Amino acid sequence: MQLGADHVRVRVPATSANLGPGFDALGLALGYHDTLEVRALASSEVRVDVTGEGAGEVPDDERHLVVRALRVALDHVGAPQTGLHLTCTNVIPHGRGMGSSAAAVVAGLLAARMLVADPTGLDDATILALATELEGHPDNAAPAIFGGATVAWSRDGNGPQAARLQVHPDIEPTLVVPVSRLATRAARGVLPATVPHGDAAFNAGRSALLVHALAQEPALLFDATEDRLHQEYRSGVMTSTWELVRGLREQGIAATVSGAGPTVLVLHPVSDRERVAAAVDELVGGSPRWRALQPGIDSVGAVAERL
Ligand SMILES: Nc1ncnc2c1ncn2[C@@H]1O[C@H](COP(=O)(O)OP(=O)(O)OP(=O)(O)O)[C@@H](O)[C@H]1O
Ligand SMILES: N[C@@H](CCO)C(=O)O
Q1: Which ligand 2 atom is the nearest neighbour of the CA of 188?
Q2: Which controlled-vocabulary keywords does the entry list (predicted)?
Q3: Is the shortest distance between the CB of 144 and ligand 2 below 6 Å?
Q4: Structural domain of 211
């Protein structure tokens, strides 16, 4: 396998996983994107220039997550490893539950797909499988790849699978993003090994309802976003997030923890945009610790092109 291009661009969306009850399964792509350009170099040099989120923090060498993913994909199809120059323009905040690590991994894998002469060995199913191996969470990787809302699951022996939902056009997300970070690993560390059967049954019902609400009946989003499997267990490591979720829900607003937190996700009808903004403003407005985003839904997923 040879390289077929030496300059590619990838645009990849932020994602919000879980959406309340769909723990480790449901995810939504957001209209909020990191963009990167990759040049294959004749030398073995690796250079990473980052503007925006992660600048001055993430490694600028082989340890960079995009570079690692790109190398895994090149190896997967037997393409030659090469020197690389990455130019990353990042807006997805790191460690906030908006899928920054899944976005970086998917971006690296798709950059490799565009660089190689024959991309057929890196089809979407392979990208999802490699992303899950690298990052661990198909509930973020699937919407980053396919756009819209997705249900991800694993089939023994066949790796991660994903189904895409058509999201009702009247639904939009509001995200309330704190300054503070929480590593996904830390948020998973406080989950119990087992949960009561009644809570598992509760979440099964709410997840099923959520798929219906997302696709067809946004009026049911408030009930459909209730969860008993993860959010309250995590409240101790994200107290202000949990307070905000509860404060919004007391006003009948469908607020949840975005992914592993600490960002708050609200799913609401488009016509409720101002009402949700006002409720957020009332609860945390004026605090330099929070900012609200209304990015819309990305219905396309990651896009890659040769330049
Ligand atoms: N664009 C990027 N470039 C390089 N490294 C990144 C990038 N985005 C994320 N990372 C790495 O991933 C880490 C964050 O991963 P983590 O899984 O904890 O949070 P998240 O992906 O933002 O949130 P969540 O998985 O809950 O949605 C960062 O600290 C950084 O090491
Ligand atoms: N479903 C995962 C998402 C992590 O991005 C979690 O909540 O831990």
Answers
A1: 8
A2: Amino-acid biosynthesis, ATP-binding, Cytoplasm, Kinase, Nucleotide-binding, Threonine biosynthesis, Transferase
A3: no
A4: 171-293
pLDDT tens column, 80-89: 999 999 999 9
Over residues 191-204, the pLDDT tens digits come to: 999 999 999 999 99
Dmax over CA atoms of the chain, in Å, equals 60
Does one domain contain both 15 and 125? yes
Among protein residues, the one with the nearest Cα to ligand 2's atom 1 is: 24
Provide the ipTM: 0.96
* Number of other CB atoms surrounding residue 137 within 10 Å: 24
The structural domain count of the chain equals: 2
CA of 107, nearest ligand number: 1
- 88: closest CA among 12, 35, 10? 35
Q: What average pLDDT does this structure show over 295-302?
A: 98
Residue 144 and residue 216 share a domain: no
| Same domain, yes or no: 155 and 181 | no
Let me know if residue 199 belongs to a domain. Answer: yes
17 ligand 2 Cβ < 6 A? yes
Cβ of 259 closer than 6 Å to ligand 2, yes or no, is yes
C-alpha 232 to ligand 2 mean position (Å):
14
CA distance 154 to 272: 36
